[in-house]
Amino acid sequence: MKFHNKLINWYLENARELPWRDTQEPYPIWLSEIMLQQTRIQQGLPYFLKFIKAFPTVFDLAKASEDKVLKLWQGLGYYSRARNLHFTAKYVAYELNGIFPTTYKDLKNLKGVGDYTASAIASFCYQEPVAVVDGNVYRALSRYFGIDTPINSTEGIKEFKTLAEKLLDKEQPDIYNQAIMEFGALQCTPKSPDCAVCPLQIDCVAFRQSLVESLPRKLKKTKVLERHYNYIVILDSRENVFLEKRTGKGIWKNLFQFPLIESSKSCETSEDLLMSNDKILPQNILREASLYNAKPIKHLLSHRKLWVKFWIVEVEKLNLVENLPKSLLITNQIDTFAVPVVIQKFIEAYGFSK
C-alpha cells in the first residue's frame, strides 16, 4: 500500500473532531492556521472559539480595534501573529471585498501567511495540490525516511518540501495534508511515540535503526539572552494604576504594561532602581517602591529569558503625581487591557478588583 494511502486510512480512523474541519470556508481555516502557528491544538482551540464568537466574519474582525484583538489573544503568545491577523482581516475585508485569495501563490502575499499556511488554506479550501510542511510533517518524514538533515537549515527546508510534494496525494490533497499533520501530532509524537501500533512501522528507518529519539535533527538555537525587568506598579487607594503602551518592534508591541525599568542585574533595593532608571521616573517615586516578589519570576520567550520583579508604590492620587512621562495613562479597569502573560498573572495574584 502506498505511503499516502496508509496515512489517510489511519487518519479516517483517528482524526480529532475540530471545528475548522467541518468547513471549507477560508475565514475560519485561515484563523485556525494563524493561531496554530507554533501552538498546539489544545492550547489554540479555546482561543479559536473565542475569536469566532467575537468575530464571526472577516468583516467583524476587520472592524475591531487592535486593542480588542490583542486582549482576546492575550496568553497565546507570539503577538505579531495577532497584529498580522488584524492587518490581513482589514485588507481582505476592505481591499478584496471579503473574498480571500484562492491560490497558494496569492495567499502567500497576505501578511502573516508563509509557505505552510498558504499550503494549508489552498489545499483545505480549494483542493490545490500543494504540500504542507510543519513540525509534525518534518518529524514524520524525518523518521520514516531516516533523514538527518537539520530541519531548520536552508538545505533541510528545501529537501523536506521537495519530498512532501513528491508524496502528496494530488487527488485529495486536503485529506492527505490533514492526515500527515494529525499523524505527527497524535502518533509520531516528539517524545516516546507508540511505535508498536504505528501503521508505518515496518518501513520506518528510524524504528529499524533505533533513531526515533534522535530524529528529526535541528541546528543549535540562537543563544538565549537574559534580561532583568522591573515593573513599577504605581497605584492609589481606588486601585487606579499607571499603564503604558509598548512601542517598537518587540514581540509585545502594542501591549500594555506598568512603567518598566530594565536593569543589567537583579535590583534588590529601591536604590538599585534609581541606579538603573533610564526613563526619568521621579526619584521620590522610586524611593518609595517596595518589592512585591523578592524572588524574580522567570519568564521564557523564544530568544529571551526574563527575570521579572514587581515593585509597589502607593500614592494618594495618581493625577497629583508630577514629572511622569506623558505616555502614561491612568485606569482602574486594568482587566480591559491586553498585557503580557507575566503581568496578567501578577494582576490576578495581587487581587485587583474587577
Question: How are the elements arranged and paired?
Answer:
Blueprint: H1 3-14, H2 26-35, H3 41-54, H4 58-63, H5 66-73, H6 80-95, H7 104-107, H8 115-126, H9 135-145, H10 154-167, H11 173-186, H12 205-208, E1 225-235, E2 241-245, E3 256-257, E4 260-263, H13 270-276, H14 283-287, E5 290-291, E6 297-300, E7 304-314, E8 329-331, H15 341-350
Parallel strand pairs: 1-7
Antiparallel strand pairs: 1-4, 2-3, 2-8, 5-7, 6-7
Structure overview:
It is an enzyme of class 3 (hydrolase). The mean pLDDT is 92. The longest helix is centred in the first third of the chain and has 16 residues, at 80-95. This protein folds into 2 domains: 3-214, Hypothetical protein, domain 2 (Endonuclease III, domain 1); 225-350, Nucleoside Triphosphate Pyrophosphohydrolase (Alpha-Beta Complex), CATH 3.90.79.10. It has helices at residues 3-14, 26-35, 41-54, 58-63, 66-73, 80-95, 104-107, 115-126, 135-145, 154-167, 173-186, 205-208, 270-276, 283-287, 341-350, and strands at 225-235, 241-245, 256-257, 260-263, 290-291, 297-300, 304-314, 329-331. The chain is elongated. It is α+β, with helices and mostly antiparallel strands and 354 residues long. The protein is built from 15 helices and 8 strands. The chain starts with a helix and ends with a helix.
Specify the CATH class of the largest domain.
Answer: Mainly Alpha
CATH fold group of the largest domain: Endonuclease III, domain 1
Segments where pLDDT lies below 50 for 5+ residues? none
| Name of the CATH homologous superfamily of the largest domain | Hypothetical protein, domain 2
- The share of residues in extended strands comes to 5-15%
Architecture per CATH nomenclature, i.e. the level-2 architecture of the largest domain: Orthogonal Bundle
Largest sheet: 5 strands, mixed
Q: Count every helix, treating DSSP H or I runs of 4 or more residues as helices.
A: 15
Cα(first) to Cα(last) distance is 60 Å
The helix fraction, in percent, is: 40-55%
The H/E string reads HHHHHHHHHHHHEEEEHHEEEEH
What is the number of strand segments?
A: 8
Enzyme class: hydrolase
Domain HhH-GPD: 35-186
Catalytic activity: Hydrolyzes free adenine bases from 7,8-dihydro-8-oxoguanine:adenine mismatched double-stranded DNA, leaving an apurinic site
Protein name: Adenine DNA glycosylase
